[in-house]
Specification:
This protein is 78% helix and 0% strand. It has 211 residues and is mainly alpha-helical. It folds into 2 domains: 93 residues; 107 residues, no CATH class. The N and C termini lie far apart (65 Å).
Length: 211
């Protein structure tokens, strides 16, 4: 009996160029974040709460990985975009619950800023549900920048028990801009659309269609 063929990097890349394979892989990676959410929350109330930060780190990494694969191999789909948005929101929600349990003093000291961000997030969510009957999945450049900065702040806090206020304020400002832009996008776009780069690109696209 001949041995099974060796798995090579080139072979993996060829496999990922197959649309069905790459889309399924992206969705499976995204599903990890959704499935991990209740585990993260439960861990906070067990003697194994130290595992919370590690699983949160993996969740943030999978967000970067599935995004890279989706862009690299054009593995985008309506379902994948929706799952990605749900996974992102649940991961941030898990982190907020972690802050409540492990760092409530910090949360209370910055309650005003956090309340504004939560209000804008809920406003965008409700506006999208009213207009599109579904959650938005824009994945703008601003959203990606805000996600990276927020992830760095949260991981620094949970791993080193250190509050870097400059990083927090930078994350809050980037998130503020992102949420305002997403509200504007819901107002601008008559139909649900995934993977929108930002307001500038929507306006630029309209101008090209006019000319």
């Amino acid at each position: 009996m001949s041995p099974p063929p060796a798995i090579t990097l080139h072979g993996v890349k060829q496999l990922l160029h197959h649309p069905q394979v790459s889309v399924r892989l992206v969705n499976i990676i995204t599903l990890y974040r959704i499935i991990t959410f209740p585990i993260l929350v439960v861990l906070l109330f067990t003697p194994y709460s130290f595992l919370f930060k590690w699983l949160l780190l993996v969740s943030f990494l999978t967000d970067a990985i599935d995004g890279y694969i989706a862009r690299k191999f054009n593995a985008t789909s309506v379902l994948g975009s929706s799952l990605d948005s749900i996974g992102d929101d649940l991961t941030i929600l898990a982190a907020i619950i972690g802050l409540i349990v492990l760092h409530v003093d910090f949360l209370l000291s910055e309650a005003a800023i956090i309340s504004v961000l939560i209000f804008l997030y809920l406003a965008q969510l409700i506006y999208s549900l009213m207009k599109y009957k579904r959650l938005s999945s824009f994945h703008t450049y601003l959203a990606k920048i805000a996600a990276v900065i927020t992830s760095l702040f949260l991981l620094t806090l949970f791993f080193f028990d250190t509050i870097i206020y400059s990083l927090f304020y930078l994350a809050a400002f980037a998130t503020l801009l992102d949420l305002i832009e997403e509200i504007i996008l819901v107002w601008m776009l008559p139909q649900w659309k995934a993977n929108v780069k930002g307001v500038y690109w929507v306006v630029d696209d309209r101008n090209h269609h006019v000319t």
